[in-house]
Write a structure and sequence with these properties.
single chain; 294 residues; 2 domains; mainly alpha
Amino acid sequence: MIDKNIAHIRATIAQNQRSNYIFSIIGWLSMMFAILTLTALIIDLLVDGISRLDWQFFTSYTGTNAEEAGILAAWVGSLLVMLVTATTTIPLGIASGIYLEEYAKKNWFTDFIEVNVANLAAVPSIIYGMLGLSVFVYNFKLGQSILSAGLTLSLLILPVVIVTTREALRAIPSNIREAAYACGASKWQMIWDHVLKYSFGSILTGIIVALSRAIGETAPLIVVGAVAFIAFLPNSLLSEYTVMPIQMYRWTDYPDIEFQKNAAAAGLVLVFMTLMMNGVAIYLRYRLRKKIKW
């Protein structure tokens, strides 16, 4: 009887080891597929667009001549739109996540809010564009401006920041909260001085991921009135604008192969901006975690 139990245990262990090995292989292949896809995309953009990356390309407006056209208005517009999006989303998203996780009572109403916040993260981006058109462009009379675009993208990524903040706060061990209370800290002191300090690295990562999604969005900005052709820099947040994805879309619509090279070069710039944002997040997270001693 004992021998049968030992044999059964050994067979179970061997089966679990095989399952782990198979899962590891599948995970490794999936990771390599993603890396190879990204590498192929970057190589393709480099081959087509590297010849167009010069100072003139960054400091010129778009035009009908491919060799003289640039992305000045597009990258400035992208930066301004992302500035509005970040300054709106970060405080609202973190504050909402803190309230739902630390202050809100657990009842049917908060459960309803949590479910809807999670569902909003999966809503197609063009729906947010229609919402932004109705609320910001028409009702608030902000027009087809940078401010309308930034607020629309803020609605798009706000659920992601809220969910990320909640998960980061939830991952902090309860003994840190108890230790803060034992030292006489108030609830807000416990959150500000302890919980946020330990969770900010993860929150920051979620924010950068959300902003990386926003910087590449096209559909909601087309709906709220981004201009496809613009030859001036915006002088305020209520000015007309264009952004990198829309500029790329306009160039790819031209039959001239030179404009396709411009689109590839703009794609390289957009990928570089996204990688820089993620690089900053990784660096800050590393520095924050290095200073924290559990």
